[in-house]
């Protein structure tokens, strides 16, 4: 299609170069022009979209405070718009479609009065000379026919009488009979081979009286009689009463011959003459057939008589042979007798059964004949100077004009049916003037198509007439004037239809179902006509009709757009007014393109194989792009000025224009792939970049104002079935509208989309944090003077508000299609571009989430602070309860308070917030219980058991059998510290000391390369002697504790804890002066029983000290080694080869004992001697460390 259109580029150049707003200065077309009128009423904007997202609605004054409210206020009825339009179209079927105005050149000339009189004479002559049997559809009364003709020709009675008398005095019409012998079937087999060689003889029997006709019925006539009958007749006339005989070809060896031969007989008496036909089987060489063939070659009566005698002689000879040999005789196969008075007006086209000559004859079969009577000579003035075709055409035109004028209901849908009188006259005239079916079809087409140009008829009628021509088409029979007239009728009708196509939006609007139906039929007619054999024959130079249609569509589209510009005048007014008018223009174009895609394109493509949508869309898209580009250049130039800023209404209008262009561009998906490239609107979004940036700032400012007002008016009461208040709904709605705006923008440029999405995300996050801060401040201001329950409810709602906004913004990656932006940036900038998008957007969202959680914690802190006095009182009650009260009674006040609080929280908090609040309450209770336990160290064990019971009870309460907090989350952090505190406080002093050494052993295993040095020792156990040998080898990297940068180290080795080894004494090495790497190589022996070394806490301690002459020794470090490593059976150290084991390296540590909870617990046990002694020793070590 594109290639064909390029061939017409020179013709269409002016159409394609339609003016833009840069240079359009001509006045609009005159309103008085018959083809210029106001365009279709523009549909509402919400009626434009069936391929795109919902559009606009009218907004109230209250909604104008926020720009995107207007842009996102979408009516719920948009989806029903096209259905409603379809219903209105169906309902408009009875409404007449618009007038199909045509140019004056297409209107045919009117016939003169003189010609009407001659035509009337022709019609009267036809009525007077009617022949044939009339059908039930025909009128038989002459008076009725004359009365009808008087009306058609507007003729007076006197004039009629004059013309009728003239016709009656004229010579009557001479008739002829056309006989077509087509074929026969199922004939009798006369030859030995089971076949026959049939041929036909036919002629006209002269008129006879009624009595002769009766006798004729008694005896069958034949061109060949038996011998005895022929001998009785002496005259040739008696032998053969036919004045002319015709014969067909012989068809050998067949019982179903096909002749397809045509004959014409002149008729003297059309009412009494008879057609007679014989079928014979040809046998002899010289027969009746050859004789009959020569009849038509003889001129004069004498010659005719001589050949009649020859025929009779041949018959006699055959008759004589019948008594002897039958070999050379022509056998009779049947005959047919048809009275001419029985032939219908339109003739016969029937199968006739063959009849015998007598009752003794045996015949079978049928013969197909076509019979038609017509006038060979007419005594009228018009027939003497004009052709029968021209006369019939004029007569039909006059009748059609009259008949159509008297159609009352939907005359534009007239199917061409005429009244019985009209049909009678036309049928007789066509028969009498011997018009062929093809001639009649051509005449009907010429008349109706010509009449249609002034008084429209149903296009289905014209289509039927074209099909009739195509069905009867026979090129050799259409020559001369008839061919020229048919060519002219095709040309005029084509030009008429092209004119209507150019103005189709006015003539065939989509709002009229009747008009669309007519348009479809018209296109189907044009499509059918260009493929007709007749059209290709008589119009050989119009084989590219689809190019003419394309030209008409382009020109009509350009003119329609110009009328649209003239209507709205987008170049007038202020810049904002110009944009609003341009929006209306683009919306009207969108509506037109929508109609082209939904309705017109289907009609064009199915009928004429023309892509109407592509042609009109490319034309309109180019013109719109030119005009909008000019307007946006002015907008950008204005906004670049420092004194100019984008107003809200201007921003709304620019957004509307952008969306309208986006919708218009979206129709490109219906174009063929090759045509969808390089359209004028391909990069139209670049015209709006600077405007969109300014507009986003307006949206942000308006959003902040809207959020502030929402918080101010919020009464912190839940809305409907939700647990958040009106401000959260307003904020989510605000965000949702901005999100929908972005989705509607669908920015195609990946880099631009990244910038805009980043800015939108930043706006969302800052607005959400601002909202959470404002709602928190509102709660802080409202807490004064509020009772606990009402304050708790309001605080819960505020928490839910923050959570509602947080959850909404959590969907931003999906709502703003972050993945799409990432893919686009990856395609344009590689992996680095994708990572940049991911880090920037997710970083914003992460920081926002942290800020919202911070504000949520502030609100939860307000709640727990309110609960703190009550909780402290109940914890104190548990702490001070005497031992005589059981644990349930002591804990019940706290649990009742928690139960009442839980009811309020469960009713008013969403699940996520309920979890957060319960977690905070749990942690608060743990801290309070830990504080109470810490303040009461050294009391009786029952005190700690009660708090242990309290913790477990509260734990199960918050866990709520799996419906509340998880045990894993609760038994971590502070719970472990409290549980350890309670467990240790319930231990005896010896158990605490043992726990102390277990921790030391565990810590020793984790030490590696400390800065306090290390010591190398070897230990082995003699089981029979129950003796532990300790060999202290050397130390290295001891810390310097003297002023000279060295130390005087020695090692104290002892078994711990002392209550496990009461008889063991501590032992020490010699002092090694002025060294940090002393070598000792000393042996020490300890008695250790199996009952002692089996304890996990049993260990050797190596304490490295710095010897001072004048003051106490300084602590340099210590290390521990569990006895289980040396004494357990099976250990290498506990075998006979224990002396040869490798030494072990122990890293030294210097930790302050007071930092350990066990140390504080033992210190609190003032009356416990063992505890105090253990604490004293550790404090001495710590004191020496402090003195350093």
From TrEMBL:
MHD1 domain location: 655-775
Main location: cytoplasm
Ranges where the record places region Disordered: 15-44
GO molecular function: SNARE binding
Residues in the signal sequence: none
Domain MHD2: 888-996
Keywords assigned: Cytoplasm, Endosome, Exocytosis
Domain of life where this protein originates: Eukaryota
UniProt keyword annotation of Cytoplasm present: yes
One Pfam entry name: MUN
GO biological process: exocytosis; positive regulation of neurotransmitter secretion; regulation of dense core granule exocytosis
Family: Belongs to the unc-13 family.
Protein name: BAI1-associated protein 3
Species, as recorded: Lates japonicus
């Amino acid at each position: 299609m594109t290639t064909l259109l390029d061939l017409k580029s020179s013709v269409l150049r002016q159409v394609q170069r339609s003016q833009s707003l840069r240079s359009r200065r001509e006045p609009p077309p005159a309103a008085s022009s018959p083809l210029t009128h106001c365009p279709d009423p523009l549909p509402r904007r919400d009626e434009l979209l069936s391929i795109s997202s919902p559009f606009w609605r009218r907004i109230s004054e209250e909604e104008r405070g926020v720009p995107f409210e207007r842009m996102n206020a979408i009516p719920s009825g948009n989806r029903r718009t096209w259905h409603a339009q379809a219903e209105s179209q169906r309902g408009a079927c009875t409404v007449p479609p618009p007038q199909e105005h045509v140019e004056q050149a297409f209107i045919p000339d009117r016939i003169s009065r003189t010609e009407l009189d001659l035509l009337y004479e022709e019609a009267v002559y036809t009525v007077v000379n009617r022949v044939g049997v009339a059908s039930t559809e025909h009128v038989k009364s002459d008076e009725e026919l004359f009365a009808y003709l008087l009306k058609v020709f507007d003729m007076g009675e006197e004039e009629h009488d004059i013309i009728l008398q003239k016709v009656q005095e004229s010579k009557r019409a001479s008739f002829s009979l056309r006989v077509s012998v087509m074929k026969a079937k199922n004939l009798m087999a006369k030859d030995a081979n089971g076949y026959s060689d049939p041929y036909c003889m036919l002629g006209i029997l002269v008129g006879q009286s009624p009595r002769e006709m009766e006798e004729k019925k008694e005896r069958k006539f034949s061109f060949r009689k038996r011998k005895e009958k022929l001998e009785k007749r002496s005259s040739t006339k008696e032998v053969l009463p036919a004045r002319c005989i015709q014969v067909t070809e012989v068809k050998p060896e067949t019982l179903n011959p096909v002749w397809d031969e045509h004959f014409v007989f002149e008729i003297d008496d059309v009412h009494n003459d008879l057609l007679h036909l014989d079928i014979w089987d040809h046998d002899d060489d010289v027969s009746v057939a050859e004789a009959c063939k020569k009849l038509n070659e003889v001129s004069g009566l004498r010659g005719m008589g001589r050949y009649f005698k020859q025929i009779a002689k041949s018959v006699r000879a055959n008759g004589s042979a019948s008594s002897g040999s039958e070999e050379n005789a022509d056998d009779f196969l049947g005959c047919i007798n048809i009275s001419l008075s029985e032939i219908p007006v339109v003739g016969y086209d029937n199968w006739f059964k063959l009849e015998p000559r007598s009752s003794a004859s045996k015949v079978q079969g049928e013969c197909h004949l076509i019979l038609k009577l017509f006038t060979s000579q007419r005594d009228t003035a018009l027939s003497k100077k004009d052709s029968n075709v021209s006369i019939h055409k004029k007569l039909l035109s006059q009748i059609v004009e009259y008949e159509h004028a008297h159609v009352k209901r939907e005359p534009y849908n007239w199917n061409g049916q005429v009244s019985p009188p009209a049909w009678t006259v036309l049928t007789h005239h066509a028969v009498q003037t011997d018009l062929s079916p093809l001639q009649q079809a051509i005449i009907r087409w010429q008349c109706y198509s010509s009449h249609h140009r002034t008084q429209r008829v149903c296009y289905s009628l014209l289509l039927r007439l074209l099909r009739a021509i195509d069905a009867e088409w026979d090129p050799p029979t259409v020559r001369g004037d008839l061919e020229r007239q048919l060519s002219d009728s095709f040309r005029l009708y084509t030009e008429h239809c092209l004119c209507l196509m150019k103005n189709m939006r006015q003539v065939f609007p989509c709002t009229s179902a009747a008009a669309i139906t007519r348009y479809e039929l018209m296109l189907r007619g044009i499509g059918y006509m260009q493929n007709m054999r007749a059209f290709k024959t008589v119009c050989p130079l119009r084989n590219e009709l689809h190019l003419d249609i394309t030209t008409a569509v382009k020109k009509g589209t350009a003119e329609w757009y110009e009328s649209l510009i003239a209507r709205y005048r987008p170049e007038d007014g202020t810049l904002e007014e110009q944009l609003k008018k341009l929006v209306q223009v683009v919306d009207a174009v969108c509506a037109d393109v929508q109609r082209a895609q939904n309705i017109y394109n289907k009609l064009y493509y199915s009928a004429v194989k023309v892509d109407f949508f592509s042609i009109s869309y490319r034309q309109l898209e180019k013109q719109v792009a030119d005009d909008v580009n000019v307007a946006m250049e002015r907008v950008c130039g204005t906004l670049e000025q420092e004194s100019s800023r984008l107003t809200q209404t201007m921003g709304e209008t620019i957004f509307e224009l952008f969306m309208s262009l986006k919708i218009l561009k979206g129709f490109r998906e219906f174009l063929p792939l090759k045509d969808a490239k390089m359209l004028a609107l391909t990069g139209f979004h670049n015209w709006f970049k600077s405007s969109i940036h300014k507009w986003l700032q307006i949206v942000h400012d308006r959003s902040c104002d809207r959020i502030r007002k929402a918080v101010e008016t919020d009464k912190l009461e839940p809305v409907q079935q939700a647990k958040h208040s009106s401000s959260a709904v307003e904020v989510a709605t605000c965000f949702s509208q901005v999100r929908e705006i972005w989705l509607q923008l669908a920015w195609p440029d990946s880099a631009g989309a990244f910038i805009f999405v980043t800015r939108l995300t930043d706006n969302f996050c800052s607005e959400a944090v601002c909202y959470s801060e404002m709602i928190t401040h509102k709660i802080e201001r409202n807490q004064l003077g509020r009772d606990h329950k009402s304050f708790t409810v309001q605080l819960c709602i505020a928490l839910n508000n923050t959570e509602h906004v947080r959850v909404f913004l959590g969907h931003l990656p999906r709502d703003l299609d972050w993945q799409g932006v990432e893919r686009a940036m990856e395609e344009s900038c590689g992996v680095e571009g994708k990572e940049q998008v991911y880090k920037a957007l997710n970083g914003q969202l992460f920081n926002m989430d942290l800020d919202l959680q911070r504000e949520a914690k502030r609100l939860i802190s307000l709640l727990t602070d309110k609960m703190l006095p009550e909780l402290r009182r109940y914890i104190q009650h548990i702490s001070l309860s005497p031992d005589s009260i059981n644990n349930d009674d002591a804990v019940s006040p706290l649990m009742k308070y928690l139960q009442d609080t839980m009811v309020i929280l469960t009713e008013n908090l969403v699940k996520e917030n309920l979890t957060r609040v319960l977690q905070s309450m749990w942690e608060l209770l743990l801290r309070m219980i830990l504080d109470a336990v810490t303040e009461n160290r050294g009391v009786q064990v029952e005190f700690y058991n009660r708090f242990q019971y309290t913790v477990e009870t509260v734990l199960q309460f918050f866990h709520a059998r799996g419906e509340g907090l998880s045990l894993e989350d609760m038994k971590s952090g502070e719970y472990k510290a409290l549980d350890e505190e309670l467990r240790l406080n319930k231990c005896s002093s010896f158990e605490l000391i043992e726990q102390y050494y277990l921790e030391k052993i565990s810590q020793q295993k984790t030490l590696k390369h400390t800065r306090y040095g290390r010591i190398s020792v070897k230990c082995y156990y003699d089981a029979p002697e129950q003796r532990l040998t300790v060999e202290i080898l050397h130390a290295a990297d001891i810390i310097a504790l003297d002023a000279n940068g060295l130390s005087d180290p020695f090692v104290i080795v002892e078994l711990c804890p002392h209550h496990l080894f009461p008889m063991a004494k501590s032992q020490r090495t010699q002092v090694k002066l002025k060294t940090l790497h002393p070598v000792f190589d000393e042996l020490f022996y300890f008695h250790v029983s199996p009952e002692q070394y089996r304890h996990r806490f049993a260990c050797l301690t190596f304490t490295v000290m710095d010897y001072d002459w004048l003051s106490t020794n300084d602590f340099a470090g210590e290390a521990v080694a569990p006895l289980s490593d040396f004494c357990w059976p099976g250990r290498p150290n506990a075998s006979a080869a224990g002396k040869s084991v490798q030494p072990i390296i122990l890293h030294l540590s210097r930790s302050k004992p007071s930092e350990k909870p066990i140390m504080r617990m033992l210190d609190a046990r003032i009356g416990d001697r063992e505890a105090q002694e253990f604490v004293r020793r550790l404090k001495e070590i710590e004191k020496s460390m402090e003195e350093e």
